[in-house]
Queue: 2 jobs
Job 1
Amino acid sequence: MPEPTSPAAAAPKEAPFGASPATGPTPNQGYEAQALQQLGVVVKQMEKMVPLVGANSELGMEILKILPKLAKFSPPGAVTPAGERNTLEAAMLQNQRQGPMLQQLRQQMAAGQQGAAPGGAPGGMPGGAPQPRTM
């Protein structure tokens, strides 16, 4: 057995033939392109916010501080009107799908607050567990 300080111990051990993939994992360029498209839309929306809040307001100053950092990834003209429309339509579709679930969750939360015991969850124990019986 080689000693820990010997060169043979320092050399990495090779995996058996066929145990490792031929190529390493690579990022999905389609996802990256979609993210850059969405970032471009966000940058345009943030640019539209500045006049609404005022460039001298605290929020306006923060937006103006962050905007150049994000805009370097989305140069002018990178977002086409069609790309902007596609991004906004995708967001609207996602909201439509999640709307009923969010409404149901709000109803459950409202019902839970109305029936909750003072000072915690129903049942008097953390997590809503029933109280232990004493004998």
Note: The two ends are 64 Å apart (CA to CA).
Job 2
Amino acid sequence: MKRRFLKIACFITVLAFLTVPVALSAGEKINLNTATLEELMTLKRIGPKYAQRIIDYREQQGAFEKIEDITKVKGIGRKTLEANKDILTVE
């Protein structure tokens, strides 16, 4: 049962990545307050689980006021912020 669940989870993850654009256009930023699950998954160190946590956080807590607020999401720390700070926005 557990093995089947893992196979299904892997399949969904691969499928999601196939529908995500490979790279952002030059100068394009990802808005933490409006980004879709797929857009959030283009961030470094962010997979489907953490992308969903970002969406859940903003739905429960309201809009992110600054990009540093992403570290308030469970499991997302300074390393993830640093890896993505140049392409994040909250505007």
Note: The radius of gyration is 14 Å.
